[in-house]
Automatic annotation (TrEMBL):
GO biological process, one term: negative regulation of protein ubiquitination
InterPro entries reported in the protein's UniProt record: Thioredoxin-like_sf (IPR036249)
Name by which UniProt lists this protein: Nucleoredoxin
Pfam families hit by this protein: Thioredoxin_6
Provenance organism: Dromaius novaehollandiae
Superkingdom per UniProt: Eukaryota
Single annotated GO MF: thioredoxin-disulfide reductase (NADPH) activity
Encoding gene (name): NXN
Amino acid sequence: MPWLAVPYTDEARRSRLNRLYGIQGIPTLIVLDSKGDVITRQGRVEVLNDVECREFPWHPKPVLELTDSNAVQLNEGPCLVLFVDSEDDGESEAAKQLIQPIAEKIIAKYKAKEEEAPLLFFVAGEDDMTDSLRDYTNLPEAAPLLTILDMSARAKYVMDVEEITPEIVEAFVSDFLADKLKPEPI
């Protein structure tokens, strides 16, 4: 571990940092800028995904491809997950491009209010981890499938339509944020 770390034995400092940054478990790597503002709370995931640190300091991306290493973020709050048929290599990228402007708009709106965005945004292809997630949340095998998963509330919201358009995604997100959607239990 080549970076500075708080010794495990320094319980007072660990406790203050836990409260300040909402740390609930170890290991945790939070990356700060020179002013002490959080760049990412997902430093550990970023290191695992970018071992050569080419994208350091890992400013958050509006839309992530769901992987084994970042799936832990599904537990942090509500997440929009667009499931696609990734056997077509271009479909995952097209899905990201479809929801990216909506994600950027939501992130910018909340950043202007100095609040964290109320949703994380993911695109999920077809792999064992995605199959496990579908099984755990009892989601149909349909693709494309637009969902909002709130693991901490054990709730899901599903929009199963033939074609996903930016208007459908935006309306789905707006309805969710306005508490107009009825949750289904996970």
